[in-house]
Design a protein that fits this description.
The complex is a heterodimer of chains A (about 375) and B (about 260). With about 375 residues, chain A is mainly alpha-helical. Chain A has 17 helices and two strands. The termini of chain A are far apart. Chain B is globular and about 45 Å long. In chain B, helix 4 packs parallel to helix 7.
Chain lengths: ~375, ~260
């Protein structure tokens, strides 16, 4: 009985910590900034693929290095996804602040683009994109030094856009024809790829007849570390104070002299970077594919909404509760518990599979949100209506 | 079609030096409705200028345009001789405009101390990362010292107003813009705020641009602008102590204006 309880608790925390890690970035991007980022799952996927790449690089370095690759992968995943988040914010989202519907559609589009991108990315594509960016944005940068830039801006774009895309396209076709498969073979392809955990993360800690997997313990520790880091950053640092100010009252913050655009970009980049770290963690417990992100996006939004938008504590509790409920319902503990009462036992046996457990959890969440629409920890005080 | 009345010659006395704020020929629209028509206004260094007018004539609109929250269709705004129209609100704040908006706009879920520290953001190129709140602020508003750890949003209206002014002063502005600082605040606190603003002008020598309805407060100003139907009238007029209410004051000004 005790081991069963421990088992349930640990598994719940373990599922919850993955959920929480995935939702942490979203708690910042959606909870604090109010941006509905449907591409959040794909940012996780990018982080997972970054881990895969780092792993392959370190494999060639040999054994002492390979055991430590995961730490470098975490940093790389954070940096890559944060940079991508920065581009996304500067290029798309900043034009859509205060327009949730458009943001939702635009970021969903970005998520589809990203999924297809990892399927078909190859040297030709990358060379083309890099060349285009260099030509187009480089030329615009040079032109912007001219005094009459505002007048010629539209003309410049009209000429530069087709010109640089034509050059980039031609180069791509040329490379593809000259080097054939070496250049055109996709890096990852549509199949899932596997990340091998370093030796010290394989296996588990045996407790009774049950094993605590090291990878799961690692994820729990990682989640706690990220939580502490985010908390300290938001509540102790000068930029954290600016972020909290801008998210509460954008206009007044600007009037106080806070560079709101920089703050927006930074906040989004950090939220995205956390998605990357989550992706890195997720790659340890399963294979990684272009659809990895989609498996998590609904769950992460659930966690943020159930917890109460804008509340970090809410996300923590919600993730643990959802994780534990999911496990308890899915593993059939309840149907064993209600063994004597036949109809109840049948009822819980029906839900005792992973996918059906999810159905039940979602149904419970819908009921819960009817009772408490603002989530577990709604904003309180005089300030709510303001 | 800006019209000026009263002692204009005296007002533009060259001895006062170059103006701290100079608004000229400003036209602001909300959509297609013309809110401000060809507005001219000058605030000289170390002077307190009061902008008066009935509700809805565009006083707040003018202040928001000065702060950069609204874009004018035409006209220029210069701060100490520098044109600022192309600057964003945060850049203008760092150039030395301290803004206390209507409705205070204290950041609700930050503590009073954090709100005050945010005021430091307006100091350009801050070398020392001090997060200390100077003693002068507590001298001006003693009530703030007792509630440093309360949330800004949980303060009463009067306390929020004092916090908002203190926050603007933390950035050591050259021009303090106050939008109805006594709106909806109990009389005793009004007196405190008034005394604080007077002390600020006397001790720091910054310019103040004030929108106000409360007569007692209005009398503190050195110069007045009266706004009517989106047109700014400039009145260099000292408040007469015989006037008991704002409408007396207003009436007096209109008569004065009509005489000229």
């Amino acid at each position: 009985m005790l081991t069963g309880l421990l088992d349930g608790l640990f598994s719940g925390i373990s599922i919850g910590s993955v959920l929480l890690l995935a939702a942490l970035g979203l708690a910042i991007v959606f909870g604090l900034m109010g941006v509905i980022n449907m591409a959040h799952g794909e940012l996780m996927m990018l982080g997972a693929y970054t881990t895969f790449v780092v792993q392959n690089v370190f494999k060639s370095f040999g054994s002492p290095w390979f055991d430590l690759y995961i730490f470098f992968a975490l940093i790389a995943a954070f940096v890559v996804t944060a940079l991508f988040g920065l581009i996304l914010e500067r290029g798309v989202i900043r034009y859509l602040y205060g327009r949730p519907l458009e943001t939702l559609l635009a970021t969903w589009g970005v998520s589809l683009i990203l999924q297809q991108f990892v399927r078909s990315v190859n040297w030709v594509l990358v060379t083309g994109i890099v060349l285009f960016c260099l030509l187009f944005f480089g030329a615009l940068q040079i032109l912007s030094r001219r005094a009459n830039f505002d007048r010629i801006r539209n003309w410049a774009i009209a000429i530069l856009l087709p010109l640089s895309s034509a050059i980039a396209g031609m180069t791509g076709i040329f490379l593809g024809q000259t080097y054939k498969l070496a250049m055109t073979r996709p890096w990852f392809g549509a199949q899932n790829v596997d990340v091998t955990a370093p030796k010290w993360l394989r296996g588990g800690l045996p407790i009774g007849n049950f094993q605590l997997s090291y990878a799961r313990i690692f994820i729990i520790v990682l989640t706690i570390a990220c939580l502490v880091a985010v908390y300290l950053f938001l509540n102790r640092s000068a930029w954290g104070l600016r972020i909290r100010s801008v998210t509460q009252n954008r206009t007044m913050s600007a009037c106080l002299g806070i560079p709101t655009q920089k703050v927006d970009a930074l906040t989004f980049a950090i939220g995205s970077g956390l998605a990357g770290i989550a992706g890195c963690a997720v790659s340890l417990i399963g294979s990684v594919g272009p659809n990895t992100g989609q498996n998590y996006i609904v769950d992460t939004f659930m966690v943020v909404v159930v917890g109460g938008v804008g509340k970090l504590v809410g996300s923590i509790v919600a993730a643990l509760v959802i994780g534990t409920t999911n496990y308890i319902v899915g593993s059939g503990v309840l149907s064993n518990l209600f063994e004597p009462i036949k109809p109840l036992a049948d009822f819980f046996t029906f839900f005792a599979t992973t996918s059906m457990a999810k159905v039940m959890v979602f149904a419970l969440i819908i009921v819960f949100l009817q009772i408490k629409p603002a989530g577990l920890f709604p904003q309180k005080g005089r300030t709510v209506d303001a | 079609m800006s019209q000026t009345y009263g002692a204009t010659a005296e007002y533009t006395d060259p001895a006062m030096g170059s103006p701290m704020l100079e608004v000229s020929d400003l036209n602001v629209y909300y959509g297609e409705s013309h809110i401000l028509r060809n507005v001219d206004m000058t605030v000289h260094p170390g002077k307190m200028v009061c902008l008066i007018g009935r509700n809805g004539v565009g006083k707040t609109t003018l202040l928001k345009t000065i702060m950069g929250l609204l874009k004018p269709r035409s006209g220029t705004i210069a701060l100490a001789g520098m044109p600022i129209l192309s600057q964003s609100p945060d850049q203008r704040a760092r150039m030395g405009i301290g803004y206390v908006p209507q409705g205070r706009e204290v950041i609700p879920r930050l503590t009073v101390k954090e709100n005050l520290i945010l005021g430091l953001e307006a100091i350009p190129d801050r070398k020392s990362k001090t997060q200390e709140i100077p003693e002068e602020i507590y001298d001006l508003f003693p009530v703030l010292k007792t509630m440093l750890w309360r949330l800004g949003g949980d303060l009463s209206g009067g306390q929020q107003q004092q916090l908002a002014i203190a926050r603007a002063l933390m950035g050591r502005p050259r021009l303090l813009v106050l939008d109805e600082p006594t709106e909806g605040i109990q009389p005793s606190i009004i007196l405190e705020i008034e005394a604080a603003v007077r002390r600020i002008v006397q001790t720091t020598g910054i310019s103040v641009l004030l929108v106000e309805q409360h007569l007692h407060f209005v009398r503190q100003a050195d110069w007045y602008y009266a706004m009517q139907k989106a047109v700014l009238w400039h009145l260099a007029l000292l408040a007469n102590s015989a006037m008991k209410s704002f409408s007396d004051f207003w009436q007096y000004k209109i008569e004065k204006a009509n005489q000229i």
